[in-house]
Amino acid sequence: MESIKVRSDTKRRLIQFRAKLEARLGRRVSLDEAISYLLDSAESPDVEELAAAVAEVRRLVKPGELTAELRRSRSQDEAGS
Fold first, then answer.
1. What HEC string does the chain produce?
2. Which residues contact 27 (CB under 8 A, 6 or more apart)?
3. Cα–Cα–Cα angle for 41, 44, 45, nearest 5°?
4. Amino acid 58: pLDDT
C-alpha cells in the first residue's frame, strides 16, 4: 500500500463522497474504491460524450441565448400561445 499527500479540504471532500457512495451502494467503501470509482466515472465514454456535447453547444450558442429563449418560451406558455 502506498501513501499520497492531499490537502485537508480534498480529503474532507473525498470522505464526503465516500459516504454518499456507501449510501448508494448500501455497503462500506474504502477510500481506494472511492477514488477508483471517481477515476472510472471520469474516463467513461458517457462523460466524454457529454463534455464534447457541452463544448459544441458553447461554441454554437452565444452566452445568454438559451436563457433568453427559455424565458420567451415560458412567457408564451403562460400567455396560452
1. CCCCCCCHHHHHHHHHHHHHHHHHHCCCCCHHHHHHHHHHHHHCHHHHHHHHHHHHHHHHCCCCHHHHHHHHHHHHHHHCC
2. none
3. 150
4. 81
For residue 11 the three cell numbers come to 480529503
For a pLDDT cut of 70, what percent of the chain falls above it?
A: 99
Q: How many Cα atoms occupy the beta-carbon half-sphere of 24 within 13 Å?
A: 9
Q: How far apart are CA 38 and CA 51, in angstroms?
A: 16
As a whole number, the mean pLDDT across the chain is 88
Task: Quote the CA–CA distance of 30 and 37 in Å, as a whole number.
Answer: 11
> Which stretches of the chain drop beneath a pLDDT of 70?
81
What's the rounded Cα separation, in Å, for the pair 38 and 17? Answer: 9
Q: What is the pLDDT of residue 68?
A: 85
